[in-house]
Amino acid sequence: MRDYAGHVYVGDLERYGADGAEQRLLSRALTALAVRMVSGADPITAGGFVTDGHADQGIDAIALCKDPPQVYLVQAKWSDAGTATFDRKAAGELIVGLDYLDRELFSEFNARGEALGEAASELMVEGNAPVTLVIALMGEKPPDPDGVMPVLNNAIARFNQHGPRVGCRFLYARDFVRQVREDRAPEPIALNVTMRPWHQHDGMHMSYQGSVRVEDVASWSAKHGAGLFRANIRDPLGATRTNSGIVQSLIAEPGNFWYRNNGITILCDRIMPRPGSMQSPHNAPMQLTAENASIVNGAQTVTAIAEAMRTDPEVAAYATVGVRVIATNGASGFAEDVTKATNLQNSVEARDFIALDPVQGEIREDFAAELDKQYTVKRGTPDPSPESGCSIVEAAAALACLHPTASYSARLARSLDPLWERGERGAYDVLFDPRPPALQIWRAVTAVRAVRETLHATRSQREGRAAAVAQHGEYLIAHLVLKHLKVSQVIDEPSCRWDEDFLPRVADAVATLVPWLIHHADAEYGSDTQIRTILANTDQTRKLASLTLSSAESREKPPTLPVEYVRAERKPRRPNTVPYLVDANAISEGTALVYDSPVANEQAALAGWLAEDSRRSRATWVNSRTKPLLWEADQRQYSPSGLVREMWQLADWKQQPVANQGTTRWKVKGGESLWSMALRLQEAEEGIESTETT
């Protein structure tokens, strides 16, 4: 709707107040979208046909087409909840408006309607243009066949006494959703591929394989960017050890690159071959145009080639890489099989195959169309900022917390891998089938974030086993909060003031539930049983959740925690940050990190230098106890403090100090620094060691 809201009349909306103005604006945007769908007009022209407002006489838009002549009279019904309907009154008003036009009573309309009405009448009379009544409903319920349709049918019959001049068409919410998705779909890529040598594979799918110059591949990346990988199970992963190795191999020995690399696989709808020679085609280059092309294997190779060409183009240009181009001819099952089978160069995770599920693409489109937010699916795609969207990982975890059964959220205590399990016992199909609405997902995500922020803010109050419960039971606690606040009753209601009325209640709910959760965990399973062991048992988790919620509902005062569960003072010196994080396997290999210094004068000194090249502020985590940061700017590994010193020197910072704490300057997604992460995990671990020995 945002594509049309800027092109419709809004001069009368101030009188309706903020909420009323927004609803009318949405209705007018829906009207403009309906005009575009039936007439083919662009958004600006469609917005200019909207007449909705005072004295519109039941007609929200009068759209004119001259070739061939056609008049569309649109009446739109908007509903935030998708429940708009069309009744006898609305039908009568629309017929009255048509009657006014037929009788040339243009003065009955507002100024916009009067001008468009005169033009429509001229088109109807001189151009013999037929008229289509378009009823646009943001809902799915068809009109009453006994109450509404006779009104329309009788009127249409009356106007058609001397020939077919008036018709009727209904548009429903599903039609608008389909149109918005089509509008947002990326333009298909026609990729030009030049191979030498080459050969054509003799099989049921037209296919070519051969050697392609790496500078040609780099030009694909420069022209099409991430669009090259839209059918891949993941986007380029950035600076990983594998990708860094590809870059170094290409620059060091370009002549051997073809032998050492697995190559690139391209799927497309159709291949248009153009041999360089008619009589001796294999002695000349083969030029292919791959229509609607996507690289399904080799995304990391393409990215590394582009980086190598930026770093040392004269050397890298000597190299070639193996490329396969396969025409699928629309066989989606075949395309999916090839995509899965060929992705073996960088490690493939279960989550990567979920990217092929059409449901995830539909959710991404719903996020953009309905919420104006991003939803990232593929591993390697940068996660959006917290206020602008979320990733599939965050969404799936939030849906697990939203599920009526506690077992799904509790299973996440050890790993998020269960989220991607398919089949009878898997979580993925339970969480995403049927497809959850975008609004539900986003609200669940924000609720879980609020729980996590509350637990993080109060972590200094807990010690020992209490810290372990909050640490490993984070998702279970989020589930309990959502159940306790009866979120299922309001999460799908568009009228709910979620940010203002619901999220502020989360902190109090956490304060009530966590002591009860700790109390029942001790009472039922003993204070020497590991929390993760309890959460791994489905029956125990369900019982623990039921007892906790029941106690919270009783309105009793939450129990006072034992003194050994309450932090008295900070512990002495802790292990070094980097070795601890590596030994704890706290950060996955390939995780993106961002440089963000907490020191103001350092920020100011490096700001201009960092702005010159965005890669200077990005690194990737490598599980190395000494040099865990793979800097994107030069593809080399550093210690956190060593990389900060290197950056200071390259930026020529004159007032740089002698030493720095690099782990406070490099942060993971969500803004947590390496130092803060290690501190948080160590504090929770100390609680486990002191109270959960088995």
UniProtKB/TrEMBL annotation:
Annotated ranges, domain Abortive phage infection protein C-terminal: 229-372
Pfam assignment, any one: AIPR
Protein name: AIPR family protein
Originating species: Amycolatopsis heterodermiae
